[in-house]
Design a protein that fits this description.
single chain, alpha/beta, Aspartate Aminotransferase, domain 2, Aspartate Aminotransferase, domain 1, 2 domains, 7-stranded mixed β-sheet, 5-stranded mixed β-sheet, globular, binds ligand LCS
């Protein structure tokens, strides 16, 4: 199929109905293994001399449809699906490093990615440094002879800080170091890191790609060579793969990604503006706000600002928790990107594993709250927030 526009690819790419009895919806190949017509076929497939399925940890037709779809969405060559976002992060980071190597990481990452970097350092002596990555010379001086990966979240969970992906990718190219970007907060509809020169893009597919809060999954996209290598090593042998049913739910959710994202972005813009004007709010962190320190960069590398808003409430942890407890429509829950508006307290929830001093360095204090603005009528979302703020 010729490449079509994004909104068309998310619906059609990877599936050919007429090859499946005309079924409009793709089949779920809920099977662990595949039957060979004769012993030689099995031998040839294991030897890589013949295409075809072998065993669902190695590849599965429903999962392969999703891998093809995410690859085109990120404008990359090959996609891989995993059982969670963290299975994707760990397969990529462990696949690109060995003992003695160094990872240069953005100043702030999701709490479990932080935990994984700690584990890699303690158990395998793969060291890491956090870096703001907003100055070219200081990035150059932070790269060591042992740096084999530059790992970036942008926007960073939950502080919404951005990293200039094109700038970091061009420096990394001089050193021959791959740049890996966790694109979970934007989704490929809003930001495509591979088009900016980065090598690998990762998603917690649990979030916007799924969109309905019913799957935990991960996806990664990169060059055919690199992804095939990872498929045969850290994906196959560590084995954190995605189930056919979850792949099917993701294929379904992804069809509506563009329309959902437009609505998330629209709602978030309205809520961010109203939060900013409210006297009980100290500070709003939202890349779509013209006062956001990296507003220009957001406009340069993102199609729109996304559906996540972090804000500091006046007071401390007590006020933050009292506000959350006073909400009626908005759900207190981690995760993001669902139809329902969700609120969480990063210091005691998603980033509780990060030691307090490090959390402060990342910009996460006890007053900070993160809202994943859902698809409800924005007026209803706002009246819930407004009522909550007036009660504390
Ligand atoms: N990367 C980012 C940026 C994330 O926000 C998360 C999960 C992951 C990776 C891991 O993905 P998972 O294994 O959960 O699919 N973030 C969460 C959050 O902010 N709240 O709950 C989970």
């Amino acid at each position: 199929m010729d490449t079509k526009r994004f909104e068309t690819e998310v619906i059609h790419r990877g599936y050919h109905a007429l090859q499946h009895h005309g079924s409009l919806s793709p089949p779920i190949f809920q099977t662990s293994t595949f039957v060979f017509d004769k012993a030689e076929t099995g031998a040839n497939r294991f030897a890589g001399e013949e295409d075809g399925y072998i065993y669902s940890r190695l590849s599965n037709p429903t999962v392969a449809m999703l891998e093809e779809r995410i690859a085109i969405m990120e404008n990359g060559e090959k996609g891989l699906a995993f059982g969670s976002g963290m299975a994707a992060v760990s397969a990529i980071l462990l696949g690109l490093t060995k003992t003695g190597d160094h990872v240069l990481c953005s100043e702030g990452v999701y709490g479990c990615t932080f935990g994984l970097l700690q584990l890699m350092e303690e158990k395998y002596h793969i060291t890491h440094d956090f870096h703001s990555m907003n100055d070219e010379e200081s990035i150059r001086s932070a790269i060591t002879d042992h740096t084999t990966v530059i790992y970036i979240e942008s926007p960073i969970n939950p502080t919404m800080k951005l990293v200039d992906l094109e700038m970091v990718a061009s420096i990394a190219k001089e050193y021959g170091i791959p740049v890996v970007v966790d694109n979970t907060f934007s989704s490929p509809y809003l930001q495509r890191p591979l088009e900016l020169g980065c090598e690998v893009v990762i998603h917690s597919a649990t979030k916007y790609l799924c969109g309905h809060g019913d799957v935990v999954g991960g996806l990664a996209v990169g060059s055919k060579d690199l992804m095939s290598h990872l498929a045969m090593t850290t994906q196959k042998d560590i084995g954190g793969i995605m189930s056919p049913f979850d792949a099917w739910l993701l294929l379904r959710g992804i069809k509506t990604l563009p329309v959902r994202m437009d609505r998330h972005c629209e709602n978030a813009k309205k809520i961010a503006r109203l939060l900013k004007e409210h006297p009980a709010v100290e500070k709003v962190l939202f890349p779509g706000d013209s006062d956001f320190p990296q507003f220009e960069l957001a406009n340069k590398q993102m199609k729109n600002a996304g559906g996540l808003i972090s804000f500091e409430i006046k007071g401390g942890k007590g006020e933050a928790q009292a506000f959350m407890n006073s909400l009626e429509l908005i759900k207190i829950a981690v995760s993001l990107g669902d139809a329902e508006t969700l609120i969480q307290h990063p210091a005691t929830m998603t980033h509780a594993v990060v030691p307090e001093e490090k959390r402060k360095q990342m910009g996460i204090n006890d007053r900070l709250l993160r809202i994943s603005v859902g698809l409800e009528a924005w007026e209803d979302i706002w009246s819930d927030i407004e009522r909550g703020l007036s009660r504390i």
